[in-house]
Amino acid sequence: GSRHQVVAHLGKLTPEETLQAREWSGLEALLDGRPPAQQLPLDAPPPPSPAPLWRTVDVSRVRVERVRQFGRVYLALALWRRLRLHSLLQELLPAGEEDVSWELVACILAIARFCAQPSELAVAERWYADSALADLLGVPEAKIHETRLYRGLDVVLQHKEALGKHLLERYRSWFGTRFEFLIYDMTSTYFEGLAEKNELAARGYSRDHRPDCKQVCIGLVVTAEGLPVAYEVFAGNRADVTTLETMVRLLEEKYGPAQRVWVMDRGMVSEANLAWLRERGALYLVGTPKSQLRQFEKALLDQADWHTVRDGLEVKLVAAADGTSTERYVLCRSADRGAKERAMLDQQIERLRGELAKLDAALQKQPVGDAGPVERRIGKGLGRTPAAAKWFTVTLRRDAQQRVCGLEVREQKEKLEWARHAHGAYLLRTNHPAADPAELWRWYVQLTQAEAAFRVE
Fold first, then answer.
1. pLDDT tens-digit readout, 151-187
2. Number of Cβ within a 10 Å radius of residue 223
């Protein structure tokens, strides 16, 4: 596990800590991109502790007034200015007749999100008054209300492209990235109400399990570090696979048609999409449907050439099944995941066998003429065990009077045996020339960065 060690305390806490205060007095300059006046190494030995100074305080006459959040707010403001966002927005949003400049409104919105505020209403009603921003920015608390914040969002949205370009250029200049490795994923968000004025709102596949509500779909592209570099809002009934071309063209317009590695989940993939990417010289690493795993049954069962990524997880690089494609596949198998899936399947199989055996015994004891209730009971049992149901075939057995007198249950043992072998296994597909399957797997699991970015947004 991780180990924690206190390196230093930030801030001038007591008069006795004057040496440490001098060490950190250049923090503001450091965050603003200027070298501090004095830079001491973090591994320097701590100074000797001075003798404590005691003071007598009448606690009955002491009270704390106007407590404000300062640390996170000050850090966020320093980052805002280090990114030069205040200068950019002053150019994009020249001063007019507004009481509070839109640049300051945007600054307050960004800092509030940095400090994990859930909504603009919460900022206006509680958080702004409890923070030090009124003192740091010189904007009185009475000037910040939900209407001004909501209007600020509309104003800033008009300059989405300029803001995105500015931030990406800063990121590129600081870290030297060329955005060669991009992760693309989709999500959706729904609306309570009719959403009649939103042209994109429509009913479609709901990831929130709210098919009764209209929604919009959001496509997000992030770097391997989880930094969002582009997003687009699509109609709520737009299929995921139809959005890829739009996002790729959007990124090429911003950064040029460089060879990038696109990492996507299987829901974004179609043969037409992959062919289109290959024609453009793009590289990809994508998930595949579970059914495609059967084509590599022999390689999956062969115990040779597996590479251990970590304890309980192995990967193997295999050629395409037809032997002619330039694509390759990465077989992955997880021991823990496989054990879990097998346990779940075994539990459902035992439950289904028990219900069918109980029904069969009842029919043998007392045959019935009406098959309807029996069929409905069988269907109910199969519906409660969907993972096991597809491996069973159930037919009614009748006597000489055509009464239902029992069940004939056949298990597809060969297919069931394959399902047990396939538990915990999945397949990745790529045209990247990398020879290390472990490296390809690590790229793919970075899809969690996109999911984390969705949660932040």
1. 999 999 999 889 988 988 888 888 777 667 788 888 8
2. 21
Alpha carbon distances (Å) from 177 to 181, 254, 276? 10, 14, 26
Return all residues near 51 (Cβ < 8 A) that are at least 6 apart. Answer: none
DSSP H or E segment with residue 430? strand 425-430
> Is residue 72 within 8 Å of residue 118, measured between CB atoms?
no
Under a CB-based contact definition with an 8 Å cutoff, are residues 277 and 264 in contact? no
SS (H, E, C) 276-319: HHHHCCCEEEEECCHHHHHHHHHHHHCCCCCEEEECCEEEEEEE
* Rounded Cα distance, 448 and 454, in Å: 10
The closest of 225, 229, 154, 232 to 187, measured between CA atoms, is 232
- Per residue in 131-152, pLDDT (tens digit) is 999 999 999 999 999 999 999 9
- Amino acid, res. 287: G
Tens of pLDDT, residue by residue over 106-125, are: 999 999 999 989 899 999 99
pTM, full prediction: 0.66
Phi, psi of 403 (to 5 degrees): -85, 150
Q: Quick one: which of 271, 275, 180 has its CA closest to 221?
A: 180
Distances (CA, A) of 393 to 385, 390, 405, 413: 13, 8, 17, 11
- pLDDT above 90 (res 266): no
Sign of CA dihedral 220, 223, 229, 230: negative
